[in-house]
């Protein structure tokens, strides 16, 4: 049977009406979405969400609607924000089988080329044969608590180099943290010894991470809400994002390849140092006879190693920046921590991983809790329709865990959560209170929880203990001798950093200076 064009049009209209009627019937019989602000046509709640510190606005909405779970429509995307530990436990942890996907990132993954980064991969068997799970498996093996012990010598060496750099140019402390984080990750992952200045491997990765910071917040670019825009030609008015994406793509694509090729060449020349890359490559070559399988495993290894820099460097730098800020603002905490270190370590050596100093453990937990690096964690997505507390959570919903709200909840972490109080983590006899929920919400949830969390905590712990053992951090004073208060400001985005502030970082004594100078040949 052949239809005329007018019959075709009528058929389309009738089908459209039928579809809308069925959809509206189905929707009306469904349970409601969690409460949230009423949106505008088309854009929904886009204007209800501020461009910075969204986590505070979400906490306010939770109070207003008297619900720890709220929903928003962001230009067509349903977004559900979980503002409590109980909601996160019930959904992202207990139902992790269906709450571990990521939303699509058309700009970041599609145009800028971060599709190789496990943090942004879709989750589940539907997605390229459980590609994400295969990546996570390698990460879990290499960063499980027992494997992390292998990385300690590098963490110790990098910390001691950091102390030396603090002696030379304390005002550049953020730059030194960046160098230290790069040194740890490039050495453990690839066996690369970084240069003291302008290291080319750090340089590529930092440029790629800048692209990630600019595009990681879904919604920063219109193409995230209207994915068809990715097909718009570059010369089109308003398509500047495509030119920018093409520029970023070059460095994002180079990031996994350049250091990996370095290891391959070093192995061929017999000069490769021990690293995750060299150990896993050896295993791959021993086990697999099949070229295709070998190639497949190598691609996963290459992606995973690069993702470690992508996910581990900036996060460590941010936590250490928070530590310097807290020590500047809370001198009495610094004094207590130094006394606790002196009592265990003395003054004749630098701290080591074996030192048991609960007050420093408490400072570390407080750093992670007080100013979480990713206040909204990374967005999850749900792969099946679900119901929570009588509310409908439709398949495809973007699920955001408000880590900030959770880590500032006084019901979990005790009073005055806006203040830096390490004592909240301690029992009366000065031990870590193991009954209390730890600071793990800072590392995400369920099956997407940060695989590098053990390594990250040890890197930050040894840096914190070593800095406090050897340096005093204090407020700078202005020309009239008045102390300069740090603004306490942070950048706002997927990842937040404290904006470096002016402060004094001076060796505690001449003996401390000599100890640092003798620590690295
Ligand atoms: C203080 C330092 C760190 C913090 C605060 C941190 C925090 C996080 C958070 C919040 C997530 C998202 C979890 C979720 O989606 O629920 C994450 C994911 C991830 N982190 Fe970390 N991280 C840190 C250090 C590291 C380090 C050192 C590494 C690697 C050596 C690493 C590797 C990763 C990877 C690969 C992912 C993606 C996991 C996935 O999507 O399945 N992180 N991290």
How would you sum up this structure, described in words?
The protein is an alpha+beta fold and 521 residues long. It is built from 18 helices and 8 strands. A hairpin with a 2-residue loop joins β1 and β2. α7 (152-168) packs antiparallel against α8 and α14 packs across α17 (453-470). The radius of gyration is 25 Å and the shape is globular. Bound molecules: protoporphyrin IX containing FE. Protoporphyrin IX containing FE (HEM) binds at residues 118-119, 136, 139, 143, 307-308, 311-312, 315-316, 319, 373-374, 377-378, 442-445, 448-452, 455-456.
Measure the end-to-end span: 87 Å
For the largest beta-sheet, the strand count, sense and barrel status come to: 4 strands, mixed
What is the general shape? Answer: globular
**Mean pLDDT over all positions:** 92
Uncertain stretches = none
| Total beta-strand segments | 8
Strand sequence of the main sheet, in spatial order?
1-2-6-3
Helicity, in percent? 40-55%
- Order of H and E elements: HHEEHHHHHHHHHHHHEEEEHHHEEH
| Ligand catalogue | protoporphyrin IX containing FE
Number of helices: 18
Strand fraction:
5-15%
Structural class comes to: alpha+beta
Radius of gyration: 25 Å
Lay out the secondary structure.
Blueprint: H1 5-29, H2 54-64, E1 69-74, E2 77-82, H3 85-93, H4 106-111, H5 131-143, H6 145-148, H7 152-168, H8 173-190, H9 200-215, H10 240-269, H11 276-287, H12 291-329, H13 331-345, H14 358-370, E3 380-381, E4 386-388, E5 391-393, E6 398-401, H15 403-407, H16 410-413, H17 453-470, E7 471-475, E8 503-507, H18 510-519
Helix pairs in contact: 5-12, 7-8, 7-17, 7-18, 8-12, 9-10, 10-12, 11-12, 12-14, 12-17, 13-14, 14-17
The structure holds protoporphyrin IX containing FE.
Pathway: Secondary metabolite biosynthesis
Cofactor: heme
Keywords: Heme, Iron, Metal-binding, Monooxygenase, Oxidoreductase
């Amino acid at each position: 049977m052949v239809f005329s064009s007018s019959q075709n049009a009528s058929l389309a209209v009738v089908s459209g009406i039928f579809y809308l009627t069925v959809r509206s019937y189905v929707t009306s019989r469904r349970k409601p979405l969690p409460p949230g602000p009423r949106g505008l046509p088309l854009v929904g709640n886009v204007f209800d969400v501020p461009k910075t510190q969204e986590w505070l606005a979400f906490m306010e909405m939770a109070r207003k609607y008297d619900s720890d779970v709220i929903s928003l429509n962001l230009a067509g995307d349903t977004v559900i924000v979980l503002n409590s530990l109980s909601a996160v436990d019930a959904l992202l942890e207990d139902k992790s089988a269906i709450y571990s996907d990521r939303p699509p990132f058309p700009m970041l993954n599609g145009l800028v080329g971060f599709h190789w980064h496990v943090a942004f991969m879709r989750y589940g068997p539907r997605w390229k044969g459980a590609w994400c799970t295969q990546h996570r498996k390698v990460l879990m093996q290499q960063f499980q608590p027992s494997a992390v012990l292998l990385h300690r010598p590098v963490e110790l060496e990098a910390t001691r180099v950091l102390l030396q750099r603090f002696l030379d140019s304390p005002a550049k402390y953020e730059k030194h943290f960046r160098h230290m984080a790069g040194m740890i990750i490039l050495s453990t992952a690839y066996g690369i010894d970084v240069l003291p200045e302008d290291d080319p491997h750090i340089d590529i990765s930092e440029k790629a991470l800048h692209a990630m910071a600019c595009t990681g917040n879904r919604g920063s670019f219109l193409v995230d809400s209207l994915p068809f825009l990715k097909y718009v030609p570059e010369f089109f008015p308003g398509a500047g994002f495509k030119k920018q994406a093409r520029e970023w793509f070059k460095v994002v694509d180079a990031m996994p390849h350049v250091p990996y090729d370095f290891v391959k060449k070093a192995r061929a020349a017999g000069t490769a140092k021990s690293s995750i890359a060299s150990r896993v490559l050896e295993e791959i070559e021993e086990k697999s006879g099949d070229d295709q399988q070998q190639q497949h495993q190598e691609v996963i290894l290459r992606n995973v190693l690069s993702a470690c820099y992508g996910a581990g460097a900036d996060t460590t730098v941010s936590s250490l920046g928070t530590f310097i800020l807290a020590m500047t603002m809370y001198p009495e905490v610094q004094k207590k921590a130094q006394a606790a270190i002196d009592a265990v370590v003395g003054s004749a050596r630098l701290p080591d991983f074996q030192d048991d100093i609960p007050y420093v453990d408490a400072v570390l937990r407080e750093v992670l809790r007080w100013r979480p690096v990713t206040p909204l964690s990374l967005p999850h997505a749900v792969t099946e329709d679900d119901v929570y507390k009588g509310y409908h959570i439709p398949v495809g919903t973007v699920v955001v865990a408000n880590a900030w709200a959770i880590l500032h909840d006084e019901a979990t972490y005790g009073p005055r959560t806006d203040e830096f109080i390490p004592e909240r983590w301690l029992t009366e006899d000065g031990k870590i209170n193991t009954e209390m929920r730890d600071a793990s919400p800072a590392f995400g949830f369920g099956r997407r929880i940060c695989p590098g969390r053990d390594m990250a905590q040890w890197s930050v712990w040894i840096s914190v203990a070593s800095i406090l053992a050897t340096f005093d951090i204090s407020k700078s004073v202005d020309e009239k001798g008045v102390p300069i208060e740090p603004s306490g400001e942070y950048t706002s985005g997927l990842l937040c950093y404290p904006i470096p502030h002016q402060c004094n970082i001076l060796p505690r004594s001449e003996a401390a200076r000599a100890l640092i100078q003798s620590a690295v040949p």
